Amino acid sequence: MDNQGGQADSELNSDWSELTHECLTNVLSRLTLHDRWTGPMLVCKSWLHACKDPSLFSTLDLEVHFDSPTESARWWTPEFERKIDAMLRSIAEWSGGSITEIRVRHCSDRSLSFAADRCSNLEVLSIKSCPNVTDASMARVAFRCLKLREVDISYCYEISHESLILLGRNCPNLKILKRNLMNWLDPSQHIGIVPNEYLNACPQDGDSEAAAIGKTMPHLEHLELRFSKISAKGLALICDGCLNLEYLDLSGCANLTSRDIANATSNLKNLKKIEKPNFYIPRSVFHAERYGHWRLYDDRFQTDTFRI
Questions:
Q1: Would you state the torsion angle of the CA atoms of residues 180, 116, 141, 102, taken in this order, to the nearest 10 degrees?
Q2: Could you confirm whether domain 57-187 is CATH 3.40.50?
Q3: Range list for CATH 3.80.10 in the chain
Q4: DSSP H helical ranges for 266-305
Q5: Where does the F-box domain lie (predicted)?
Q6: What sign results for the dihedral spanned by CA atoms 35, 36, 38, 42?
Q7: pLDDT tens digit sequence for 218-266
Q8: Looking at the DSSP assignment, which residues form a beta bridge with residue 101?
């Protein structure tokens, strides 16, 4: 019995080891990136080779790993950035230029420039919360990834309006732009997690960015500018230049009034939804017992527009 069992185990192991490359990649395609990265890659050389097959890397989506109610201070460390950089560089190389979607956080100029040079078919780029991504790597993206239709550079404070100009001029298919900032009205949720010097570096040039968007991105349909320092003048520039807008998020834009928004958006015939700068109540108010009556307004004010 023991011999028969051992022979059966041997045959099973042999079957797996002798799978053709095509069969093995088919099996691996059913696993998540995390599962492939932590399991099959470590089995043997043939499995490692299969895990690097370009067909497995049409997308890189790490957002699910950042989808947490609270941020981790570890994400903002150099060590974590190096790990993300290593993963992005590896997958950009293994994809063989076939990757069309990248969604990561906390990468740097080094890995983003590397990816831009090798991912000319890229259509979606989301790099939220990247303190070391600058105009330098975004210029490479703009000149090499001409098929971009969606870009998310939220909470990337070293990216300026210059990058927006290059993206607008070189990426004619751009339909979705997300340029949200952290909640500077009530930064308490970030204190102790995000480095203070980074919190204090919140971009002040809202109107410069608005001018870049309005002048170079006429085909935009979806625009997010949460907690931007944009003024009525900047909003008017956007609405005059982006007549195809269907969705506009201005949550937390404290420099705008209802009248400013109404005047600027009056010519947007396709506009279906607009998120306005809700009346702001600091979180501390909700936790103060003497202001217990404010709890009645939880559903109205404690919405996702105030969660970064």
A1: -30
A2: no
A3: 57-187
A4: 283-286, 298-301
A5: 16-57
A6: positive
A7: 999 999 999 999 999 999 999 999 999 999 999 999 999 999 999 999 9
A8: 59, 124
